[in-house]
Amino acid sequence: PTRPYLFSIGDFSERKNFISLIEMLEFLPDYNLVLAGNANSLYAEKLKTLITVKNLQSRVQLVGKIEDTDKQYYLQNCDAFVFPSLREGFGIPPIEAMRFGKPVFISNNTSLPEIGGEHSFYWDHYEPKYMADILKLGMARFYNAQEFYENWYVKRSKSFNWNTTAKQYSAVYRKLLNL
Question: Cα-flanking dihedrals φ and ψ of residue 123, to 5°?
Fold first, then answer.
């Protein structure tokens, strides 16, 4: 994108709630939106229709499934990562965005608050103007203390570690089996 953009990635399905991002974009004239995921679904068709109805074709890019290098590019160069998921088993994409020191805007439900921690920005509901207001406020806070936030996000992302998780699971199983 040639303009500042928000980025999100995931399956194009109802539970990812990408429609709310498109609706929010009306209230954010300074941003474009890049969505990565399976663009060959019924939900993707709903997204495309909404983009056309709202005349946002020049501001929303549905890039389809992407390789890791493309994902890293979008994460590294976005202004913020946005993830309004309604249901999430465990949200790895916000952790990946944090690794790049990016501000993270996520749903205040399921596992996402545990992932986001105290310095991520949360949506309690999905009314478009409210979401845009949270994003504007969060971006202002981020830029007022950018070095702090970037360092905090990177440190937080590193706290999610597969080796540590495996050791913790092993300790639970050993305890249960009295080993």
Answer: -105, 125
